[in-house]
């Protein structure tokens, strides 16, 4: 079984180096997160994923940068992704997340997960009033 290894800049091919350079330029840092170092085992996947993340998480749009990070963090918590929880907690904190905001976010994540599972278990039908044609 092949166990993927981190692809450091010095060992990367030109496609990967271009993505790494774009990550550095976009984030204004010399640091390349581990996710990118491991995704570089598949250069096409690395490039596609970076382009998507860069587009979705870019400033601008209807959601402010902190809200985007909080949504990403909430999904990461629900999916139990330790790596993403750590990286997006850090990013959210850098964009203004306080301990109070994190506490409220955790209350919402916990409640949503609880009620989602209750609704799924009870097989609760969706109320007709919530249907798009009734809006």
From TrEMBL:
Carboxymuconolactone decarboxylase-like domain segment(s): 45-124
Protein name listed in UniProt: Carboxymuconolactone decarboxylase family protein
The organism's place on the tree of life at top rank: Bacteria
Organism from which the protein derives: Alcaligenes endophyticus
Pfam families documented for this protein: CMD
């Amino acid at each position: 079984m092949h166990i993927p290894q981190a692809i450091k800049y010095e060992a990367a091919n030109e496609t990967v180096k271009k993505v790494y350079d774009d990550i550095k330029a976009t984030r204004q840092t010399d640091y390349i997160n581990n996710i990118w170092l491991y995704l570089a085992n598949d250069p096409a996947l690395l490039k596609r994923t970076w382009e998507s993340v860069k587009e979705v998480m870019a400033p601008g749009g209807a959601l402010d940068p902190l809200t985007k990070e909080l949504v990403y963090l909430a999904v990461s918590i629900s999916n139990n992704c330790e790596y993403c929880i750590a990286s997006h907690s850090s990013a959210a904190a850098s964009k203004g997340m306080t301990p109070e905001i994190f506490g409220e976010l955790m209350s919402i994540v916990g409640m949503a997960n609880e009620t989602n599972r209750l609704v799924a278990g009870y097989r609760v039908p969706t109320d007709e009033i919530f249907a798009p044609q009734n809006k």
